[in-house]
Amino acid sequence: MKTDHQIQKDVAEELDWDPAIDAASIGIEVHEGIVTLNGHMSSYAEKLAAERATERVSGVRAVVVKLDVHPPGAFLDEAIAEAAHEALQWHVHVPSDVIKVRVERGWVTLSGNVDWGYQKNLAERTVSQLRGVIGVVNNIRMNEKTAPPDVEDRIEEALRRHAVREAHHISVKVENGTATLSGHVDSLADRRAAIGAVWSAPGISAVIDQLETRP
C-alpha cells in the first residue's frame, strides 16, 4: 500500500504531466489516501482537469477540491449565457431545444428534461469548457422511461467491454430506473468509468454510487 508521501509525489507528477494544468499553482495535501487540492485556477475546465488527473493516481481514495477559479479578464454573464447556448446548439448529441441555461456571477445552471443520462452529462461537460465559467450546477432531469428487463446484464457486459478493471467485482442492481453500483474498484478513475457506463444504459434515470476504492 502506498504511503501518503508517495501518493503526494505521484499526484504532483501527474498534475505536472497534464498539459491542460498549471501544476505550479496547486498545493497538495494527503491524509490516509485522501487528497486535498488547494490553489487558484484560470478556468473551470482546468479545475476539472486537475480533479480527474488526481483520480487517475493509484492509491487515491478520495479527492477534496478546494480550487478557486479566477478567469483572466472580465466576462459578462450575458456573454457566458450566449456562448453556452450556442455551444449546446452546436453539439450533435445534446438536445439543446429542451435545455435551459441561467448564468449568475459566472455560475452556469442547466435545467430541462432529456431522455438519456449521457445527454445530461454531455451538456454539463460542454458548458464547463467555456471561458468565464466559474462552476456548473446540473439540474437537468431525466424523462421517465422503462428500463429493459435485461438492463443489469447489459450494464455488466458494458463494464467488461470498456475494460474497467475489477469489473467482475462490481455488482449492478436496477429498480425503477435507478441503478445501484456496489463493490470495489482500484481507482477513482475506474469508479468514474463505471458510472459513465451505467449512464449510457437505456431507461436509467439515476445512479447510486456505493463503490469503494481500494487503498
Automatic annotation (TrEMBL):
Pfam families named in the record: BON
Top-level taxon of the source organism: Bacteria
Keywords for the protein's UniProt record, in alphabetical order: Signal
BON domain mapped to chain residues: 3-71, 76-144, 147-215
Coiled-coil stretches: none
Keyword Nucleus: no
Family matches, as InterPro entries: BON_dom, Lipoprotein_DolP, Transpt-assoc_nodulatn_dom_bac
Transmembrane portions of the chain: none
Xref: PANTHER family: BON DOMAIN-CONTAINING PROTEIN (PTHR34606), OUTER MEMBRANE LIPOPROTEIN DOLP (PTHR34606:SF4)
Protein name listed in UniProt: BON domain-containing protein
Organism: Cupriavidus necator (Alcaligenes eutrophus)
Lineage of the species this protein comes from: Bacteria, Pseudomonadati, Pseudomonadota, Betaproteobacteria, Burkholderiales
